Amino acid sequence: MKKLLLGNEAVARGLYEGGCRVASSYPGTPSTEVTECISTYNEITSEWAPNEKVAMEVAFGAAVAGARSFCAMKHVGLNVAADPLFTSSYTGVNAGLVVVVADDPGMHSSQNEQDSRHYARASKIMMLEPADSDECLRYSKLAFELSERFDTPVLLRLTTRVSHSRSLAEVGDRVDNGLKPYEKNAPKYVMVPANAKVKHVEVENRILKQVEYCETEALENGLNSVEYNNKKIGVITAGICYEYAKEALGDKASYLKLGCVYPLPEKLIKDFCAECETVYVLEELDDYIETHCRKIGVDVKGKAEFTLLGEYSQGLIRKVILGEESKSLKADVDIPARPPVLCAGCPHRGLFYALKKLGVTVSGDIGCYTLGASKPLGMIDTVLCMGGSVSGLHGRNLADPERANKSVAVIGDSTFIHSGVTGLIDIAYNNSNSVTIILDNSITGMTGHQQNPTTGFNIKGEPAAAVSLEKLCEAVGINNVFVVDPYNLDESYTTIKKALDLNAPAVVISRRPCALLKTVKHNPPLKVNKDKCKSCKMCMKIGCPAISMKDGKAEIDFTQCLGCNVCSQLCKFGAIE
Fold first, then answer.
1. Is 327 exposed, middle or buried (0-12, 13-18, 19+ CB in 10 A)?
2. In contact, 441 and 348? CB cutoff 8 Å
3. In the sheet where 69-74 sits, what is the strand order?
4. Rounded to the nearest 5°, which phi and psi values hold at 22?
5. What are phi and psi of 270, to 5 degrees?
6. Phi/psi at 161 (nearest 5 deg)?
7. CA distance 118 to 281
8. Which one, 5, 19, 202, 526, has the greatest CB density within 10 A?
9. What pTM, to 2 d.p., does this model score?
10. What pLDDT does 334 receive?
């Protein structure tokens, strides 16, 4: 039976059908929906982990115990999981272990463009890359088989367009192989140097066997495929670029589609190139396949004709290869830009206004609150990586202690648990004069309201142990912990100033649930008394999308306003009622 599935849904279905028993992930766009869909299958024990490293270790532990397992993350999350990933390549597995990583060409929701195929080569772990939802489902199931056959984790690489587009997929029944027996085997699983040296030899031999598989069986089962049409143009590609190429070129080109992008075949590529006059490598981000082709002595065209930046398109491919401009429909009117903005009623808005009033430098982190960098608030100075705000603030204050009482870090509750705690331990341990502000909105916000260890609920919405941020901060050595309501501007301002004046490690917890949570009850929307409005535009300084100026007077859109009353605290004339 065929179903129209999101790419991420199809991956989850494939893992389910393949007999997955344990799933552990940390949410990260564009990978989040894989684990959310997995959680709907009761046969699979699923969870949100505090971070990707923990998720990878949980999945590895389950695989060693004999259960087919998986974890998912976005590309930058693979950086966090790299430590266990690399060594698991040496140890191998007992039951199958699939690691899903979703790259984000074009940086739709990420701080960099990172090509995870390099991780496959560096860690010497097999990587598959599907092009549509049907392949997402089939490759997920196949990944378990390959994992057990070659005694290795298998990486499944997605990209935003594959993860978040829908196409037909053939769904089937679940096949559960049960729990494989575990046998104690220290030389296999205990990676002390003496054991690791032996295992490295096995890894290199394993890659040779995988290359042979890619040349032969992968062609037979359709993982790799060759399609000859017009042999004047040959295209070597993988993933979503195959779909773009087929739409742009049709039967004007021949195609070598690679479903396994590590290890890459040699003979298959050479034979294909020998049949075609001019061969193009189509791949987003880095010249990964192109470099392999040149290494094995094949002349191809690639990044010199295309780009290392962003996403490809059908139009780009048609223009470069065929020299044809694409025709596209255009609107008769200019469509106004819709830049990302903090939602109406967002609790972070009042906190950032208080910080702006204090005139501090803000070390920022990854989450909704990164939007505090946008004008008119403009209150984020740096953003590096998950948890980087806390450690970064400590480093800033070490370098310039004179400005320590004019610098703060902001970090969300989920991100703090993910990797901010260790930075705070560093601050406490080294008695750093640093103020960390935890923006506790009671959810993992930007990725779509996933639970985390502070919310008191697990991935299925069932009651769970909840980390107390106050007790955690005190336990690591922070003696000055304050809690404020960011809707209260005066309280936020005075409390943060008090923390800064202490000249000691301090934490301010800005606590107010995300305004979009279904459980949050809002006040009636506010409105502007036009007779009292003096057009001073003070209410505009918080950048709320519900507030605008019309005919020289402030106006509040009642369909957006959540009655948070932050704007009314700025109006000196009582015009907001």
1. exposed
2. yes
3. 45-48, 22-25, 69-74, 97-103, 154-159, 127-128, 260-262
4. -135, 135
5. -65, -45
6. -70, -35
7. 17
8. 5
9. 0.94
10. 81
Using the predicted structure, report yes or no on whether residue 48 has a pLDDT greater than 80: yes
pLDDT level of residue 335 (50, 70, 90 thresholds) = confident
The answer on pLDDT for 327 being more than 80 is no
Place of tokens 């009353």: 565
Alpha helices in 160-313 (DSSP H): 160-163, 186-189, 193-215, 217-220, 240-249, 267-275, 288-295
pLDDT at residue 168, rounded to an integer: 98
DSSP, collapsed to helix, strand or coil, labels residue 236 as strand
What is the C-alpha to C-alpha distance for residues 161 and 171, in angstroms, rounded to an integer?
21
Structure token digits, residue 357: 């009033």
Contacts of 199 (CB under 8 A, 6+ apart): 90, 91, 92, 188, 191
Average the pLDDT over 241-251 and give the result. 97
Distance from first CA to last CA of the chain, Å, rounded? 57
**Per-residue pLDDT at 54:** 98
DSSP element (H, E) containing 13: helix 7-17
For 450-491, write each residue's pLDDT tens digit: 999 999 999 999 999 999 999 999 999 999 999 999 999 999
Whether residue 340 is predicted with pLDDT greater than 90 in this model: the reply is no
Question: Contacts from 35-40 at CB under 8 Å and sequence distance 24+?
Answer: 35/72, 35/459, 36/448, 36/450, 36/459, 37/8, 37/9, 37/12, 37/13, 38/12, 38/70, 39/459, 39/460
Please report the pLDDT score of residue 338 as a whole number: 78
User: Residue 8 has which token pair?
Assistant: 């991420």
Query: Residue 564 is which amino acid?
Result: C
State the DSSP code for 528: B
